[in-house]
Amino acid sequence: MEESLSTSPAARRSSARSAAMADLPLPRRALEDLVASALAEDIAWGDLTTDALVPVGLAAVADVLVKSPGVLAGLPVLAATFAAVDPATRVVCLVADGERVAAGQVVARVSGQARSLLSAERVALNFLQRLSGIATATARYVETVSGTKAVIIDTRKTTPGLRSLEKWAVRMGGGQNHRRNLSDGVLVKDNHLVAIAASGRTLAEALAAGRRRWPHTIRVEVEVDRLDQIPDALAAGADIILLDNMPPAVLREAVDLIAGRALTEASGGVTLDSVRALAEAGVDLISVGALTHSSRSLDISLELRIG
User: Fold this and answer.
1) What is the pLDDT of residue 147?
2) Which residues in the chain are classed under CATH 3.20.20.70?
3) Which residues on neighbouring strands pair with residue 70, listed in sequence order?
4) Which of 19, 89, 167, 267 is deepest in the core (most CB within 10 A)?
């Protein structure tokens, strides 16, 4: 979110609060259900420590403190978690999701009953740390390919049950999303090609049959791992060609061979060390499974004070 340098700090905080709470990463009911499931896992039949040691009615305020620099994502989920434990809890967001944050920065302030804050703390932070870690990793990849035409995208290698949140965190980091699920697009991978060949059909015949049942809005992507597979993919009418595990020199040949007749996506074992060379090969998209399966959580804590 870009704002004028002349905007007052108070106005920026107000804008950040509105953006963080209005732009939910998934439908409100789905978010509430997800949070409820996480809390049921953590609190189970009660918070034995807090329920026994912290008096009812004790008021508290807590700062959500970032302890390492990164890109923030997950404030609506944090707020929903505290609200699920105690609707009277108040969360004030001091920045917006997608903003860069520094070590030592307070990004939100939570106030309410101390018992409620303590019982919600771990789940709220787990969501915020995980999603901010994904956003931070995505931002690093986006920065690394800056100046090329390549767009960083995610994959379906996500945590079961958390896909919508994790893909949203990728967007907060400046990346874009690949298909959300198997119903969201057609991707003919290597094992599909094996099955098609075993059925006695060509790729063109199989895709022609598929297009008769798919909506006209659906785009078709075909995976190849050799240059000699590209002509068949183009002849079959692929909209996107996924170039799997090709080194940069081979990627350049593939891009030249495709010559703009389909979008090109590089994929397979992409790292921060390799992504720039892949981007400079001229591909349109680079899919990075590590964004969601290997990102390190951002270090964030809740600092409680009474009164």
Assistant:
1) 98
2) 143-293
3) 101
4) 167
